[in-house]
Design brief:
CATH topology of the largest domain: Beta-Lactamase
Radius of gyration: 18 Å
Number of helices: 7
CATH superfamily of the largest domain: PAS domain
Strand order of the largest sheet: 4-3-9-8-7-5-6
Low-confidence stretches: none
Number of strands: 9
Number of domains: 2
Oligomer: single chain
Length: 183
């Protein structure tokens, strides 16, 4: 977790500017400890830098390295969640948790109603997508935005793979998501 001072040093602005951005909703944060200190996750810091189009060369190298070393910002392994035939979520990996902020206990056994997706100007319903009748072996690749648990939208590549049982019966759908915010 980064302090407002860390984030200010990273971007070359004052901590007050960082606080103003937080209060304006431009930079997600959490309040921690008994004094309610503002903290920014490495994932949110990375997302902010990428969304603002800031070149890594303009950033403080020590803090930037801390952000990139954080396991939550790794994009080597994609997020994966799986729904069964009844559209209930039966698997949610740690990379999906790091990318979207939802704990497995938040989504397992649900129809993914908490997990929001959109293309500009239009909501995308993941359940409706999973109901599309695929051809055997079909894969659907979408470039969309998915909403993090904290409310910010992240550009992702979402790949749907239908899981076939015996014959052509569809037993579920595997959703593979990878952030477009890789370092």
């Amino acid at each position: 977790m980064l302090t407002t001072g860390d984030m200010g040093k990273l971007l070359g602005v004052s901590p007050i500017t960082i606080i103003n951005w937080m209060e304006a909703g431009r930079l997600p944060f959490e309040r921690l400890g008994p004094r309610g200190r503002r903290r920014i996750s490495a994932q949110d810091a990375l997302a902010f830098v990428k969304q603002q189009g800031i070149s890594p060369e303009r950033l403080d190298p020590q803090i930037w390295e801390r952000i990139l070393a954080d396991p939550g910002t790794s994009s080597d392994v994609p997020g994966l969640f799986v729904t069964a035939r009844n559209f209930q979520c039966v698997h949610w990996n740690s990379q999906a948790q790091a990318l979207l902020g939802w704990n497995p206990s938040d989504v397992l056994g649900t129809c993914l109603e908490k997990v929001k997706a959109r293309v500009p100007g239009m909501e995308v319903d993941l359940r409706t997508l999973s109901e599309l009748p695929p051809e055997t072996g079909a894969t659907l690749v979408l470039h969309i935005e998915m909403q993090h648990r904290k409310g910010n939208w992240l550009p992702v590549e979402l790949v749907l793979n239908w899981i076939h049982g015996i014959g052509t019966n569809i037993e579920g759908v595997a959703f593979v998501c990878r952030s477009h915010l890789s370092a």
